[in-house]
Automatic annotation (TrEMBL):
It comes from the Bacteria. This is Protein-L-isoaspartate O-methyltransferase. It holds the Pfam family Erythro_esteras. InterPro entries: Emycin_Estase, Hydrolase/PRTase-associated, UCP036794_erythomycin. Keywords: Methyltransferase, Transferase. GO terms for molecular function: methyltransferase activity. GO terms for biological process: methylation; response to antibiotic. Transmembrane segments: none annotated. The keyword Methyltransferase applies. The lineage of its organism: Bacteria, Pseudomonadati, Bacteroidota, Cytophagia, Cytophagales.
């Protein structure tokens, strides 16, 4: 670091004034995280999301989560009474590993707030909560079948045919992908037929109110998830970066659909890992021809319409698993390696938190080069961190702002903290 970087103090949500001003009139704000299991990333994103909703009229939050589970949350926060009696019980619907990503007390607090906020709004203006991801092939097929059978739609035949096509694989999309990855017989035509049938019906019907429009939209979205999930799992088995691109292109397609659903002036908040929201062109992902939603939003909506906020920390603890599907653990996060982005900020700020704006960082010539930036996934082994947890990044171009939180602690998963009211210390600023 050639010189001291311009930073702004970060102690409470009031310190986000500078960031709100920088966001300006952006239509999409992407909020990142350097892990899927860090308490402070969730609470600071919540604090910023509340202000975006209250002060700038943002209409929905879309997260790196499955569409069916998130759509259940979306319905609950718009009802007069919370489904299942509480947010904590509602979030038990997130039963796919890693369950802690959305099944945690930090998200429960956000869901409770969204529900309270919505009670004071007319139905057409109630804030939504949606999932952007593509993993839920079987769950989405079940949801489509349930919807069309309930509606008595002409799409029933196509939905049942698709459902039967996947049945031999025991609801395991990876088993399906292994079976069909290198042969010509698969279920691609069946899921595409379902999507076409639902889109044809959508052209014929014009639901009068938002709840009905959302139900029809949700069914079509589940069909779209099935189409893209089928592609995703086959690409994953074949290896390479194709599956990543299927996934993030699906996220962008979903975001575009949600913006259209909410109207020409709608505004969206995205919650996803830094590897998704930080422009891939300014990381080593570019060499592998990999894209992400951070890049795609800038390209498709215009850079002036998009504002991305990266997050990171120097050390602490995190919730993760040692392997895919392994039990969750509270793991230590060691001090960031020498000369990484996080270590440099730790040295400059002497253990304090800070907000950095890329418009100010770009004046520093030393930051035009790529440097290591920590990224922790749901699978994590602290002792091996230096060998694969740092993404070479041109920080001022990858993000529009960066929240540095020097010392962070692990998330509070519902599975570990089943107390009725949750942990008492979710918000250090006294909420």
């Amino acid at each position: 670091m050639a010189s001291l970087l311009p930073t702004h103090p970060l102690h409470s949500p009031a310190d986000l004034d500078t960031l709100l001003a920088a966001i300006g009139d952006a239509r999409v704000v992407l909020l990142g995280e350097a892990s899927h299991g860090t308490h402070e990333y969730y609470t600071w994103r919540t604090a910023l999301s509340k202000r975006l909703i209250q002060e700038k009229g943002f209409q929905f939050i879309a997260v790196e989560g499955d569409w069916p589970d998130c759509f259940e949350v979306n319905a609950a926060i718009k009802q007069e009474q919370m489904a299942h009696g509480s947010a904590a019980k509602l979030l038990q619907t997130f039963n796919r590993w890693p369950t802690w990503m959305w099944g945690n007390w930090e998200i429960a607090a956000l869901v409770e707030w969204l529900h309270r906020h919505n009670q004071a709004q007319p139905m057409e203006r109630r804030v939504g909560f949606y999932g952007l991801d593509v993993y839920s092939l079987w769950e989405s097929l079940e949801a489509v079948l349930h919807y069309v059978e309930k509606q008595g739609d002409g799409a029933v035949t196509a939905a049942r045919r698709a459902f039967r096509c996947f049945e031999p694989y025991s609801t395991d999309p990876q088993e399906y992908a292994r079976a069909v990855a290198f042969v010509s017989e698969d279920c691609q035509d069946e899921v595409i037929a379902v999507l076409r049938a639902l889109r044809h019906q959508a052209q014929e019907r014009q639901p009068a109110n938002l709840p009905e429009r959302e139900q029809a939209f949700g069914a079509e979205q589940n069909a779209l998830v099935a189409v893209n999930a089928e592609r995703y799992y086959k690409a994953m088995i074949r290896g390479g970066g194709a599956s990543w691109n299927v996934r993030d292109t699906h996220m962008m397609e979903t975001l575009t659909r949600l913006l259209h659903l909410h109207g020409p002036n709608s505004k969206a908040i995205i919650w996803a890992h830094n590897t998704h929201i930080g422009d891939a062109r300014y990381t080593d992902m570019r060499r592998e021809d990999m894209v992400n939603i951070g890049q795609l939003t800038r390209e498709q909506l215009g850079r002036e319409q998009v504002f991305s906020v990266g997050f990171g920390s120097y050390q602490g603890s995190v919730v993760a698993g040692k392997a895919w599907g392994a039990p969750l653990e509270n793991m230590p996060v060691p001090a960031a390696i020498r000369n990484s982005w996080e270590e440099q900020l730790h040295r400059q700020l002497k253990g304090a938190n800070g907000l950095l704006l890329s418009s100010e960082l770009k004046q520093e010539t030393g930051l035009r080069q790529s440097q290591g930036h920590r990224a922790i996934g749901v699978v994590y082994r602290p002792q091996l961190e230096q060998f694969g947890n740092y993404v070479p990044s041109v920080i001022p171009e990858r993000y529009d702002a960066f929240l540095f939180l020097d010392h962070t602690k692990a998330l509070h998963p519902l599975a570990i903290h089943p107390e009725e009211k949750g942990p008492p210390d979710l918000y250090p600023w006294g909420e």
